Amino acid sequence: MNPSIRPPHRPFNHRSPLMSLYMRAIGRSPSSHDHHAQQRGFTLLELLVVLIMVGILMAIGAPTWLSMSDNQRLGASQDEAFRALRLAQAKARQQKRIWEACFRTNDGQLQYSVHPNRNGKCGNAAWQPLGAEAATFTTIDTTLSNLTASQSAYVVQFNASGWLASGQDATESRGNEDNAQGRRLTFQIANRPDLRSRTCLYMDSLLGSLRAARDEKCDDTPTR
What we know:
Elements: H1 17-25, H2 32-39, H3 44-95, E1 99-106, E2 109-116, E3 128-129, H4 134-137, E4 138-140, E5 148-150, E6 153-158, E7 183-189, E8 199-203, E9 210-214
Antiparallel strand pairs: 1-2, 1-6, 2-3, 4-7, 5-6, 7-8, 8-9
């Protein structure tokens, strides 16, 4: 054979007799690596470590998540009440008559009604839930709400100018004169009076201006 001519290079065959002999010597078959890589699962210790880590993360994150959820529900109640008040105010201006927005908690559900005034305060109410989720998980904080109360409900009336109605507008509006600056409607999480989270709406003036606030800004003891 001509020494200058080299045989063609052949790739190393992992299944060659020599390799098979080596693998048997170390106690493994040539395909055992692939087989074990496919069949290997988690050990009990690994599963326990993962479960412990998940438990720690849940313990850290759960209070934060619950607090965020409560704040969203309180904000939803505040937004829905704000829209109800603005609707009553707009209807009063449009129809040139007294309209009112009434709020109450009935059988564990937060409810409201926007309607023209007839048969006394809230006497013409058509009650409906104040939002979907918020109506179930929030309620009126009666200790921090001091709007005019009638028939177990809180009521705000607007006259033909969109101002807070008074006894000068109609007999049914007597007692509203004190509904001016500082009067408010306050919401809290249902069945959790220990929580300090609150949202509220202030009747800022007789002109019908509204102001939203939350938490410590709703904690002042109302003057009746």
